[in-house]
Amino acid sequence: MTTATSAPVAPVYTVSQERRIVTAIPGPRSQELHERRRAVVSEGVSSVLPVYIAKANGAVLVDVDGNQFLDFGAGIGVTTVGHTEAHVVEAAAEQLQDVIHTLFTITPYEEYVRVAELLAEHTPGDWAKKTVLVNSGAEAVENGVKIARKYTGRRAVAVLDHAYHGRTNLTMAMNYKAMPYATGFGPLAGDVYHAPSSYPYHDGLSGADAAARTTSWLEKVVGASDLACLVVEPIQGEGGFMVPAEGYLPALQEWCTANGVVLIADEIQSGMARSGHYYASEVFGLEPDLVLTAKGIAGGLPLAAVTGRAEIMDSSQPGGLGGTFGGNPVACAAAVAVFESIEANDLLSQASRIGDTLKDGLAELAADYDIIGDIRGHGAMIAIELVKSGTAQTTKEPFAAAVTHIAEYAAQQGVLFLTAGTYGNVLRFLPSLAVTDELIADGLSVLRDALATLERP
Ligand SMILES: *Cc1c(COP(=O)(O)O)cnc(C)c1O
């Protein structure tokens, strides 16, 4: 165990924090690698941008041809503390020398316990909490559902429209979009119910009205007494960074508590400092019964967690939870370093700073381009929803081709933007918290050029 209380040093970057394009995109070496990949990697695994990355540091990716990209995706919100962040690298390297694996369910180790302590401290709610560590977000969702079913003795699972929860058998039944996540992969798991959500830009409902719609739907279609859990993303990720109307989430929690339903917050994308809080639940005053953490928790190493009320987490029989690699010591050491970096570098404030800079810059663009229908999000989790010209005040017709154009144009200029949205018309910004205001301004200047070169329908 690294006792690792020493403060991380101020970032010294091993890659200059700037974009630089020196070949066509993708470059010749990336194209070569892509040919090799196509011979041996399943076509079911796709890549947004087929440039092959050789090095990554801070907010910059370097490909095998020497091109440098500003990374506004952070591996979908994983390298929140920055790529190859020095403190994380050091902690993981040290742990590699000590113990790589024993299996916590055979012979345990301190790092797992330390991560559970940190999660108990930083997840919302000041009650006694316990944790199980697993390998991936989807596995955390699966375990959250297992635990809620065991605790309640009930069968049904509720999710919200526009949700994304993963690609395993249970979680693909919990996603809103069949294509590409579930199409042809059935039969899907049963007893999963998709309730209407809060999407203020489209439904115009107050939090109270949207919550009443959700809970009355659940009462009619499922029946509260059969419902084990309601799983919500406090800010929806893949669905398009929908921020629910004020009061929506606390009203759902109140209904769940009154009906003995476990409320599970899937904070896999929105958690770990991204929103300017440790967990986006805090933005809304939500204190969920169980919280799921993954993506950003270990600086890029695979680790995920279910954390929540001790009496719920303890309902499983011994041996019912766990798995071979869950809570791997190296991933745990990295996670401890991530928590330390968040504190030492005041990353919650950095996330808020990034959100302010992005929102200001995007508002300037929206003043010139009416296709930017909505700007939403919190901290370093911001998105714009693009609609066809002239429809923003009326039908808000999705303009997915604009998002595709922007992402492709930006990649050619050395900026990696990710898309999202049920209708493919959302551009999302989830940079690492190492990104400076200068780099954000540079990225937004490329976005402005992309908008200027867009063909209107
Ligand atoms: C990414 C994600 C998942 C799935 O996590 P994996 O690690 O890819 O299995 C689940 N829920 C949300 C909200 C996510 O963003």
Automatic annotation (TrEMBL):
The gene is gabT. Its cofactor is pyridoxal 5'-phosphate. It is an enzyme of class 2 (transferase). The keyword S-adenosyl-L-methionine does not apply. One of its GO terms (biological process) is gamma-aminobutyric acid metabolic process. This is (S)-3-amino-2-methylpropionate transaminase. InterPro entries: 4NH2But_aminotransferase_bac (IPR004632), Aminotrans_3 (IPR005814), Aminotrans_3_PPA_site (IPR049704), Class-III_PLP-dep_AT (IPR050103), PyrdxlP-dep_Trfase (IPR015424), PyrdxlP-dep_Trfase_major (IPR015421), PyrdxlP-dep_Trfase_small (IPR015422). Pathway: Amino-acid degradation; 4-aminobutanoate degradation. GO terms for molecular function: (S)-3-amino-2-methylpropionate transaminase activity; 4-aminobutyrate:2-oxoglutarate transaminase activity; identical protein binding; pyridoxal phosphate binding. Belongs to the class-III pyridoxal-phosphate-dependent aminotransferase family. It comes from Orlajensenia flava. The keyword Zinc does not apply. Pfam families: Aminotran_3 (PF00202). The lineage of its organism: Bacteria, Bacillati, Actinomycetota, Actinomycetes, Micrococcales.
